[in-house]
Amino acid sequence: MALQLNIDVEIIGLSEPLVYEDGYAVISKISGRKRFYIDVSFLTDKEGSQIKSERFDFLPDLDGKNYHKQAYEYLKSLSKFKDSIDV
Predict the structure, then answer these.
(1) How sure is the predictor about 43, in pLDDT bands with cuts at 50, 70 and 90?
(2) Helices (H), 2-82
(3) pTM of the model
(4) CA 34, CA 27: separation in Å to the nearest integer?
(5) In the predicted model, what is the mean pLDDT of the chain?
(6) Residue/partner pairs of 74-79 with CB below 8 Å, 24 or more apart
(7) Sheet strand arrangement including 85-86
C-alpha cells in the first residue's frame, strides 16, 4: 500500500519548493507501544528514489484492525495528505 501525491521539497536557495508530481509516500517503519511512530519515505515514483522522509505519531486503536492500515488512514486525515490517493 502507498499514497500517491504531489511532494514539495524545500531547497535552500530556491524561493519556491521543488514539486514532484505523482510521487509516492510509503510507510517504511511503524514502532511504539501505546503511541505509534510512523516513518514515511517519499519517493519520486512507484519504484523511484527516496526524496525525503518524515516521522508522524498517532494513537492507534489497540483492539482494532491492523496497525498498518490504521497508520495509512491516519496519514490520509492530515492536511499534507488530503489530496493523496491509495495506490
Answers:
(1) very high
(2) 67-76
(3) 0.90
(4) 18
(5) 95
(6) 74/38, 75/3, 75/25, 75/27, 75/38, 75/40, 76/3
(7) 50-58, 36-43, 18-32, 3-9, 85-86
Residue carrying the nine cell digits 514502532: 31
Q: What's the rounded Cα separation, in Å, for the pair 32 and 82? A: 25
Any idea what the Cα angle at residue 74 is, between residues 5 and 10, rounded to 5°? 40
For residue 87, give the 3-state DSSP assignment. coil
Annotated domain spans of the chain? 3-81
**What DSSP state is assigned to residue 78?**
S
Reduced DSSP (H G I as helix, E B as strand, rest coil) percent helix, strand, coil of the chain, to 5:
15, 45, 40
pLDDT > 90? residue 65: no
